[in-house]
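Ticket reopened. Same input as before:
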Amino acid sequence: MIKLSHIGLRYDGGPEVLTDISLTLEQGSFHYLSGESGSGKTSLMRLLSIAKLPSRGDVTMFGEDVISLTRINRAHLRQQIGVIFQDFRLLSHLSLYDNIALPLRLSNHPEHKIKSAVKDIANWIGLGDYLKTKPLFLSGGQQQRAAIARAVITKPKFLLADEPTGNLDDDMGQKIMVLFEELNKSGTSVVLATHNKILMKTFKHPVLTLKNGELVK
Ligand SMILES: Nc1ncnc2c1ncn2[C@@H]1O[C@H](COP(=O)(O)OP(=O)(O)O)[C@@H](O)[C@H]1O
Ligand SMILES: [Mg+2]
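Engineering reply: fixed in the latest deploy. New output:
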């Protein structure tokens, strides 16, 4: 369902930070993405979330050739991907409610359905009392949980999570993993960048490892 062929990525004409990456992710698969800091995990996430296009190589997602798509069709494709960014990317001028509701609003869900979905996920993730609060008034862990809620609320076809438990205590980290596992069981493909050895041991999945911008076997 997602296929990268001989991908290279450079930023602003600099050196390649991802080199000759070929990768197939089947629908319903679950992979960890590991590698030292600077090895290219976030860059690979940017390609997989179509936030960036590669400098060379091909990308196919859900049967579409991502590179030759129009901007509008690419944006449409992006709506099927849930992303938890390492730096959260919550919108600071919006309440937590509006942040979490955003993907459902973009796909034109009726407001009464949005309301119950936002309340359900916010309560489950321990943010039910903060829905009127703006992100900057929340702790790092609370912001991370809000970013997780926003990414999963559409039950996306493909979920990308960049070190999503980095600011959470162990119990919350486990709880979030159970959420990802449930989504995965209902068909969502997951790629999860993490350094958390305990999670990787508890919830077993194949590991993709990056080293200096290359996938190592
Ligand atoms: N926006 C950017 N502009 C220029 N260089 C970048 C940018 N983002 C990452 N890099 C560089 O790409 C390489 C891989 O970084 P990154 O993908 O963030 O790795 P990781 O997430 O594994 O720490 C690093 O050398 C980093 O400095
Ligand atoms: Mg990173």
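Residues 170-185 form the longest helix (16 residues). The helical segments are 41-48, 71-78, 96-106, 111-124, 140-152, 170-185, 197-202. Please confirm and we'll close it.
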